[in-house]
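Collaborator request log, item 7. Partner lab (contact: R.S.) asked for a structural prediction of Peptidyl-tRNA hydrolase to inform their binding assays.
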Amino acid sequence: MADEVQPWLLVGLGNPGKEYARHRHNVGFMVADLLADRIGAKFGRHRRSVAEVAEGRLGLGGPKLVLIKPLTYMNLSGGPVAALAQFYKVPPAQVVAVHDELDIPYGQLRVKLGGGEGGHNGLRSMSKSLGTKDYLRVRFGIGRPPGRQDPADFVLSDFSSVERKELEFLVDRAADVVESVVTRGLEWAQNAYHGG
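Returned to partner:
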């Protein structure tokens, strides 16, 4: 059960480095960066993990948020997440992963607790390292690749010019979803955001 006193761990999944910054696979980092701006926090290297971390509160006296960007590349994200969950004493029910999702059309956001990883290596690594799949996920729809493009190439490419017109709005909306999950709960967030 979620505990108001314990912080929430928000994991933005992505790959470190400028060459990956605008890729579809990096929407988790984009959302984490925006949330850091919102709570007035700056990312810095954590001494206990291969990750950048920013800490702050959601609103005056609101819940504490620990934002994480693993620096191990997507496929090994779980190690830093598990280390920081242990360091901050955060139960899996208060871990939120923000990630790209091929099985959801571009522009749609979905929230869920647990479930499969759908071939997403970042989630697979997190589930293995945390020892459970029962953490929250904010799924940012990127849609399927066009034609016969390999999904691996698709996620490791930039958003199209048409998609970029909406990207800032969608990242903003995904940050709203994260805040809603933390402050109002999973069910409220699902009811509020699953319409579009």
